[in-house]
Each structure stands twice: as C-alpha cells, then as structure tokens.
From TrEMBL:
This is ABC-2 type transport system ATP-binding protein. Its main location: membrane. GO terms for molecular function: ATP binding; ATP hydrolysis activity. It is a peripheral membrane protein. Belongs to the ABC transporter superfamily. GO terms for cellular component: plasma membrane. Pfam families: ABC_tran (PF00005). It comes from the Bacteria. It is found in: Cell membrane.
Amino acid sequence: MTTSPDTAAVEVSDLRRRYHGGFEAVRGVSFTVRRGELVALLGTNGAGKTSTMEVIEGLARPSGGSVRVLGRDPIRDRTTVRPDVGIMLQSSGMPGDLTVAESLQLWAGTCTAPRPVDEAIELVRLTEKSGTAVKQLSGGEQRRLDLALAVLGRPKVLFLDEPTTGLDPESRRATWSLLATLLAEGTSMLLTTHYLEEAERLADRLVILHEGLVVAAGTVDDVVAAHPAQIRYHGLRPPTLVGNETVTVEGDRVTILTRSLQGSLTALLAWAAASQIELAHLAATPATLETAFLALSAERNGRLQSEIRDEVTV
Ligand SMILES: Nc1ncnc2c1ncn2[C@@H]1O[C@H](COP(=O)(O)OP(=O)(O)OP(=O)(O)O)[C@@H](O)[C@H]1O
C-alpha cells in the first residue's frame, strides 16, 4: 500500500494507555513525527516513554486516542504497516544459539526487500562477530545486533527504544553516525533515550514526557529558550538589574534567574564595582538542555529551584 509523501510518519493524538489494575501511564499525549525527521522522546524513569512507544509500534492497544503510522493503524493495518517499519526494542529476543549472521538471515526471511545480511552486519560493525552465537555477544554487541535487525528491511520509519544504552563511547558515536546517515537518506525516526547529548546531536525535535503528559516539545533551542540562565555568587542581594530577574537568597548564596544573561551580568558587575562589593564564587550559566530537563521534572514534582541548582552543579 502506498501513502502520500505528505502523510506524517507518525501521528499520535490524545493517546491514553491504562494498565490492568487501572493505572493510567499515558494520559493524553499528542505529537507528530514528520517524514524524514528524528524525534526524541525524553522523560524521567516511569514518564511513559515505553508505554507510548509500544502502542505506536502496534504491540499494545491504546485505551484512548489514536496512533497512525504512515497514515495507518499499527494494529488494524498491521500487515501493510509492518514492511515499512523497523523496531529496535530493548531486547530483540533472538534465540541465543543462533549466530549473528543466522539471526539476520532468519529475520531477512520476514522482510519484503531486505538489505544483504553482510551489509547490515557491516553497518553495525559486527563483521568479526558474524559467526558468534548471540548468547556469547557482549551487551553492547547485542545492542548493535538489535539495531542491525531493525534496519535490515530498509524501513521508512524506525522506532528505537534506548538504542545506545550499554554501548561504549566509541560504539555510541558509531551508532549516532549510522542513524545520521539513515536520516539523511530520508528514514523517519522516533527514539527514546536517557542521554541528553544523544537527543541534542540527533533530534530535529524533542517531546518531553512527565507522568504520562507532554510537558515540553519543540527543537532543542525552543525547549532551552523557555528556561532562564542562572547567575550565582556568595554575597549581598543585588539591586534591580535589568528588571526581568528572579532573585533568591539563602544565607549568603544568591541565585539570579534571568532571560537576559549578558544584560543582567553587566549590570551586576557594574553594581559590584561601584559599591566595591566582592561577588565570591561568581558563576554564570546559560540554560542547557540538562538544566531545562531537570527544571521541567522538578517543577512538576514541586521541588525547589535550589535543589535543581545543586544537582546541576555537582
Ligand atoms: N504492565 C504494567 N502494569 C502496570 N503499570 C505499568 C506496567 N508497565 C509500566 N507501568 C507503569 O507505567 C509507568 C510508565 O512506565 P514506562 O515503562 O512507560 O516508563 P518509561 O518512561 O519508559 O520509563 P524508563 O525510562 O524507566 O524506561 C510507570 O509508572 C510504570 O510503573
């Protein structure tokens, strides 16, 4: 079945997922993955990423809302969706006695137009292990085999659940490079990750979940821009600087949150110089994806800004 190139790769609308026992892990999530784009689904443990992915992958039914993959229902239209989709779960579940090459050959039999097995093995740099039994692979090598299985059928849409967890830094970079190549070739991707650097490097857009809800979405710049920069020092409370700051003082620890880092810092230094005041341990930090992510989780948990600051500075 063909679909219009204008159809979104993935369309999630007001998705809900309630488990037996009544717990609602996904509580009305909506987002889109456009064609040729990589969207990273982020969130703290238990945010609902896997619960959402499993519905999109057609492995579980939603209890509300809808999911479309290339315009089709991943469960009802399973036979037409499946050939266009590659899925990398947290474990592929291949029999441990099969070798790497045998696993891929077996899987190739289920694909419509698979890559040559040797090419898939080469893509994930497992050539030297092609005759090794799956159960003898290291955790990182198994992850790479999982990725080879996911890309074997030349999917139009790739779903990746924590694709680089357990990989050493070199293999992680090699995986990023492979994903960037697939992206450049037009593959659409949705991935979950706990590595913010991975999201920053690869993602066109982010969707951040917390307790089953979308709490932020957009490009990395969009998400970061919604959070203020910080200036910290030990000393006296400053006067009004450029006027848009939030100042908190705990003992002699002063924290200034500002949307105009340069302006606030210039005014602060001018005040300190004119008043001959020392700003001990002065530090100025722009918002980063990490501070934005921690702030979003902390805001939702009702925690104090000072706790976030301590986590970011350790
Ligand atoms: N089978 C289940 N029955 C009941 N609750 C479940 C079940 N599976 C997951 N949950 C709950 O649903 C919530 C979301 O879990 P989910 O695995 O989707 O989170 P996640 O964002 O993928 O987390 P992680 O980053 O730890 O993988 C959690 O509170 C979890 O305890």
